[in-house]
Amino acid sequence: MDTVLVVDRLAQQIASMRKARGLTLVELAARSGVTRQKLAEIEKGSPTVSINLYAKVLAALGAELQVVPARRPVFEELQEVFR
């Protein structure tokens, strides 16, 4: 599986959880101890942001990272990777 796709899926899940909880980028950044700019990078799927910052954001959302077997990407996901 392409690492870009893995990071993109994680980014989408983080953004969805934040929105479902009614939090703004500023609010979640304050709760997690990361800057709003870094949180925006995380939600865009930046592979250059450290896993530690991803973990801080997940903890602030009351979530954790779980490793599961990879699934094949759907067409829409592939379009995003090659955009």
UniProtKB/TrEMBL annotation:
GO terms for molecular function: DNA binding. Residues 14-68 form the HTH cro/C1-type domain. It holds the Pfam family HTH_31. It comes from the Bacteria. This is XRE family transcriptional regulator. It comes from Pseudomonas syringae.
